Each structure stands twice: as C-alpha cells, then as structure tokens.
Amino acid sequence: MSKVKKKKTFGDTTSFTIPATGKFIDIKTNKERSVTPEMLHLVNEHIDRRTLGHAIMSFLYWQAHGNDTQPEYERLEGKIDEVLEMLKGGAAIQSAVTESSYPDDTDELLSEHFG
Questions:
Q1: Each residue of 17-40: b (16+ CB within 10 Å) or e?
Q2: Which residues is 33 bridged to in the sheet?
Q3: 2-34, pLDDT tens digit by residue?
Q4: Fewer CB in a 10 Å sphere around the end CB: N or C, the chain?
Q5: Where in the chain are the domains?
C-alpha cells in the first residue's frame, strides 16, 4: 500500500538556510556579521517549538511599526540591565526590584519575549 501524500499548507514545514559562509548582512547597520552559536540555538529552539515564523513576523512588525511596541521592550530591557548590574555589584534582589521600578505590563512582556 502506498502512502498518500497530503498537500502541504502554510505552517506545515519550516525551512531555514544559514549561509555557507556563516555570515549575514545586518539589515540595520548593513555590516557583515557572523552567525553566533546563540543565534543558532534560538533558531533551533523556534524550529522545535514551531514558532520560527512567528519570530520572523514579530521582527518584521517591529521594523514596520517599531514606535508602537519597541519603546516598551527597550524600557524593560533597560530595567533588566539595571537589575543585573545591581546584582553584580552585590545588591540584594529585594532592593533591586520594586513594584514602582518596572512597567505594569512587565509580566506580559517577559512572557511574550522570553517564553
């Protein structure tokens, strides 16, 4: 008995090609950059979770509508950097994070951007 091949639809297959050189052109700076192990890890993680298309569409959304969402993300990223610096300096985590030190939607942003 032969297997009936079903027609593939959008979302059935993920294909992603890394340049053989291991380099890509950063579209923001137009500079050539190396593909890092961290980038490969993220690509593989998104492929495994079947979310690579969503990651790409999120990036394209930020490129097209950056002013709508990027400032919230950058504010959160800045707060995370501040907390990390405080922790490196020996500060206790209770004094580094207070309710007033982060935006109301922090939990939502963390879930959205870091799973």
A1: eeeeeeeeeeeeeeeeeeeeeeee
A2: 24
A3: 666 666 666 556 677 888 899 999 888 899 999
A4: N
A5: 67-115
pLDDT digits (tens, 9 = 90+) for 56-87: 888 888 888 765 555 666 777 778 888 888 88
SS3 of 30-79: the string is CCEEECCHHHHHHHHHHHHHCCHHHHHHHHHHHHHHHHHHHHHHHHHHHH
pTM above 0.85, yes or no: no
Q: What type of residue is 66?
A: G
C-alpha 97/C-alpha 86 separation (Å) is 10
Q: How far apart are CA 108 and CA 98, in angstroms?
A: 17
CB distance 72 to 109 below 8 Å: yes
**Each residue of 95-111: pLDDT tens digit?**
444 555 555 566 666 66
Q: Look at residues 22, 11, 5, 8 and name the one whose alpha carbon lies nearest to residue 49.
A: 11
Rounded Cα gap, residues 27 and 87, in angstroms: 34
